[in-house]
Specification:
about 500 residues, 13 helices, 2 domains, alpha/beta, globular, disordered C terminus
Length: about 500
């Protein structure tokens, strides 16, 4: 159903008001490789997109043009020397050592971890192009909101909240969130940043720690030795004009949906009441989900998405970004569902067949998967209540709806037509979809050839045995999943 980007009333978004949703996707990001053993896998964005397409959600959103950020746009926040390094660095140049490798390490690129086991921010091939593309998506999404052409904008390739002005950090090189917030500040008086990643949103908080026009709110795991250390404590409330405009909600291991909701909803209700933002940026890192490779929280996809639904219900321009998330099938499923929440459309739990089917076999080809019932929840009722009360006390110190000086943007109005594809790009051009289609055709031909060969073998055996079938002979079994041909060979519990 094509609703022209407007949402539909649904159970997931009971406010039921119309929403014009726009969506950014750049297929080039999927090919970026952090390295064989690295937990960051940009292909998860392509996996989410494939699910979104297969559920038929693209027709409910306007499509933002793929527009990489320029050097000047990125230098609006990041140090010029650091930008120069990102632009010029290659794996070959770094591997040669010397001055290039030394410069990179000064900016925390290619630095081996203290335990000597990993490189958080490797000098990946195509690094600058990658940074330009995900940052460009967040800028385009922010401009779509500022233009008034969209109520909700989505860029799952963004959300790199750890990157600092002059250094890489936590798998993040360019802080697209800061760039997007700065863009929104040219059009809105107050911008709220909400972070539900398992890690503290330190890069964004630091960038705006003294601002009275930006409030940052981070819900995160805060346990001994967990990255980033010594950040995101309850007492970290901002500085100077930004005092009480940094809100931190630390959690212990095992936080579940109920405890998270008991913190998130009352705190965010109070934030919306006292700060009264004109735009919201929300980082939806999927590493707070149960079963993440790095995080130790225990949220279900529904619990995670409930936060998105809650912020959507305030009917304030909303920018949704990706972020962390290292069990990639869980992350892709979550971001697909949250896209449906943004639109306001219910989607089935049974996944449509698509080019990344194999990644979801462990969860039974379902959108939702069960949380870890064996993970202990260290967040007692007392801890949750005490944390909520402490945060609300801090918020009570905040001046309600601060009056701020506001100047109209020097660049004038936004050219909305330049932001959108009209018409939307053809999805058939997606190389992964073409490959999947070709593989499916080859699989079907191969299956039929194998079936024919086995029938000939059975006929030969029948002749040799006088017409008596061998009861133990494994039979080829054809299985369908949502119209796609699958085949299995059951013999001593092996499959082909």
């Amino acid at each position: 159903m094509d609703t022209g980007g407007n949402s539909l009333p649904s159970q997931s978004c009971p406010d039921g008001a119309k929403r014009r949703v726009c969506y950014y996707y750049d297929r080039h990001i999927a090919g970026v490789d952090y390295g064989e053993d690295h937990v960051m896998v940009p292909r998860r964005v392509d996996m989410a997109h494939a699910l979104i397409r297969s559920y038929g959600l693209l027709g409910d959103m306007a499509r933002l043009r793929s527009s990489p950020a320029t050097d000047a746009e990125i230098s609006g926040f990041h140090d010029g020397r650091y930008v120069g390094l990102l632009r010029d660095l290659t794996p070959e140049g770094f591997g040669a050592g010397g001055e290039v490798a030394s410069r990179a390490r000064c900016f925390n690129v290619g630095v081996v971890s203290t335990d000597g086991r990993s490189v958080d921010n490797p000098p990946v091939a195509g690094l600058w192009d990658y940074c330009q593309r995900y940052a460009g998506g967040s800028l385009a999404a922010a401009r779509a909101l500022a233009s008034g052409e969209a109520d909700v904008a989505v860029n799952w390739s963004g959300g790199m909240h750890h990157a600092c002005r002059d250094r890489a950090s936590g798998f993040c090189y360019v802080n697209d969130i800061v760039l997007a917030i700065d863009e929104l500040l040219g059009h809105f008086r107050r911008v709220l940043y909400v972070d539900i990643d398992v890690h503290h949103g330190d890069g964004v908080e630091t960038a705006f720690v003294g601002s009275n026009r930006v409030m940052t709110v981070s819900f995160h795991q805060r346990t001994e030795g967990f990255f980033p250390e010594r950040r995101g404590l309850l007492e970290h409330v901002g500085e100077g004009d930004g005092r009480h405009r940094a809100v931190n909600v630390p959690m212990k291991k095992g936080m579940d949906d109920d405890g998270y909701r008991r913190l998130f909803e009352p705190i965010m209700s109070k934030v919306m009441e006292v700060f009264q933002p004109e735009a919201i940026v929300m980082q939806c890192g999927g590493d707070s989900l149960s079963g993440d490779r790095l995080g130790h929280l225990n949220l279900s996809i529904d619990g995670h998405a409930r936060c998105v639904s809650f912020m959507r219900s305030f009917n304030t321009p909303l920018l949704l970004l990706g972020g962390g998330g290292y069990t990639i099938n869980h992350v892709a499923a979550c971001w697909c569902y949250e896209t449906a929440v943004a639109i306001g459309k219910e989607i089935a739990n049974d996944m449509p067949a698509h080019c990344y089917d194999g990644y979801y076999r462990s969860q039974g080809y379902k959108l939702r998967y069960p949380v870890d019932k064996n993970l202990k929840n260290d967040n007692t009722d007392t801890y949750v209540t005490r944390t909520k009360c402490a945060v609300l006390r801090n918020l009570s110190e905040l001046e309600a709806a601060p009056s701020v000086e506001f100047k109209e943007p020097a660049g004038g109005s936004i050219d909305a037509e330049a932001l959108f594809y009209r018409p939307a790009p053809r999805e058939d051009d997606d190389p992964m979809e073409r490959l999947h289609r070709r593989c499916g055709e080859m699989e079907e031909r191969g299956f039929l050839m194998e079936l024919g060969k086995r029938q000939l073998d059975l006929a030969k055996d029948d002749r040799e045995s006088g017409g008596h079938h061998h009861a133990h002979r494994p039979e080829p079994v054809k299985k369908h999943r949502s119209g796609k041909l699958h085949m299995e060979y059951h013999a001593h519990d092996h499959e082909f």
